[in-house]
Fold this sequence. Notes:
By secondary structure, this protein is of the alpha+beta class. It folds into 2 domains: 2-137; 146-196, SH3 type barrels. 32% of the residues lie in helices and 22% in strands. It contains 6 helices and 9 strands, in the order H-H-E-E-E-H-H-H-H-E-E-E-E-E-E. The strands form 2 sheets. It has a 6-stranded antiparallel β-sheet with strand order 4-9-5-6-7-8, with no helix packed on it. The chain has a 3-stranded mixed β-sheet with strand order 1-3-2, with helices on one face.
Amino acid sequence: MQEILQKYIPERTVAPILLLLQTYKVALKIVNKRVTKHGDYRQHESGQHQITVNASLNKYRFLITLVHEIAHLLAFKKYGHTIKPHGIEWKMTFQQLMLPFINPAVFPNKLLPLIAKHFKNPTASSDTDAVLSIALKEFDFNNNETYIFQIPIGSTFRIHNGKVFKKGNKRIKRYECTEINSGRVYLFQPNASIELL
Length: 197
């Protein structure tokens, strides 16, 4: 497992992450890219804990995702399964688990202030923090993506499921975009990955 982790997370985090996985008997599955999520946690009927994480993530996002999922396991273990999946108990657990990693030996200096700010009140997905998400994407293996915030208002674009939209005005944090076929308006995060048409 150590050799596998070394491929996916920063070197200084391998030993503490390996200890967590071994202590809680977690089966880690590294899977092909899923569009809708970076990772997930589940406990099987047998009691076995399983975490899956997308293989396509860069090492910083992989670490954050893996710790996010371990936080689910520990929060459920400590507080019971009636808590909200991304409620206060999970947030506190996630913060405590991430705190030792928020330092320059793990993350590049340009990411540290963004990560520190995010972990004051972590969200269900690092993608909902558009500034952090865009900064993390700079470290992706294939970083030739186009994002909604980069294209002019009125541009037409396609998303991962093939639907085509026209970009509208920004509403506080997100952009109003009209689906061409239905005329329905959807809100998009500025860091949504798109294909400009």
